[in-house]
Each structure stands twice: as structure tokens, then as C-alpha cells.
Amino acid sequence: GGGRVTLTVSPFVPKANTPFQWLGMAPLPVLESRLATLKDRLHSKGVPVKSESLAWSLVQGSLARGDASLASVLTDIETVSLSGWRKALAAHGIDADPALAALPREAALPWDVIDSGTAKEHLARELDRALAAGDG
């Protein structure tokens, strides 16, 4: 008695040089639906659900998976805001959504030029292990 539980959730954001670098990120409507479901189901049990901004998570995903074409976008952002990000993308004719899609394992990745000290084959094996563990 007397304790409280608060659930804080963050959407999955694939990051470079990790086993999950090939996985895609859910689109905003899917993330919004999942968050609404969590909040709806847990609110009745007295558990508040907090989340970082889903829109900013998509920006994070775009930056984590993007290539050199984002350099000009970053230098042209007038204000550090979602609207500033979107305007800079539009000004350069860049659609950030493809950066959030799943990638084939054999694809050349923008960060392949950086030697992280971990072979892609090792990361692929670790991804396979993680996915297999999730099936069990």
C-alpha cells in the first residue's frame, strides 16, 4: 500500500551500428494508436503513462538513420522546432519517412564508412538471436 507506479514509454528508434539498425520504425499513426491503447488500459488501473514526444522520436529516427543529405537540412533549420525541421526537409525536397523503413541486411548503410570495431556479420547474428528470443 501507499506506492505508486508510473509507466514511461519510448518508441523504438533504430540506431546505427547496433543489431537493430536494419529494423524499421513504426509510423506516427501506429505509435499514436499504441500509446493511446496503453494510456486507456492503464488509466483505469490508476497507472499514469508518460511518453516522450512521438513526433520528436521520428526526428530522432530520421537523424539516426539518415545520410549526408541531412547535413544541409540541419544547417538550414531556422528554429529548433518540429515546424523548422519539416520546413528544412521540404526546402531540400527530402522525405524523411524512407529513413524509418526496414533496411535489407545486404544494403550499403550510410554509416558503413565508420569502423565501429564490430563486424556487420556479428550485428546480424545478434539481431537473429534477439528476434528468435522474441518468438519464444
Spans of at least 5 consecutive residues whose pLDDT stays below 50 are none
Give the spatial strand order of the biggest sheet: 1-2
Radius of gyration: 18 Å
SSE series = EHEHHHH
Number of strands: 2
Overall pLDDT, averaged?
Answer: 92
What would you call the quaternary organization? single chain
Distance between the termini: 34 Å
Structure description:
The protein contains 5 helices and 2 strands, in the order E-H-E-H-H-H-H. It is mainly alpha-helical. Strands 1-2 form a two-stranded parallel ribbon. Strand 1, helix 1 and strand 2 form a beta-alpha-beta unit. The mean pLDDT is 92.
Q: Keyphrases for this structure?
A:
136 residues; mainly alpha; two-stranded parallel sheet; 4% strand; flat
Write the layout of secondary structure elements.
Layout: E1 7-9, H1 28-43, E2 49-51, H2 54-65, H3 70-76, H4 82-91, H5 120-135
Parallel strand pairs: 1-2
Helix pairs in contact: 3-4
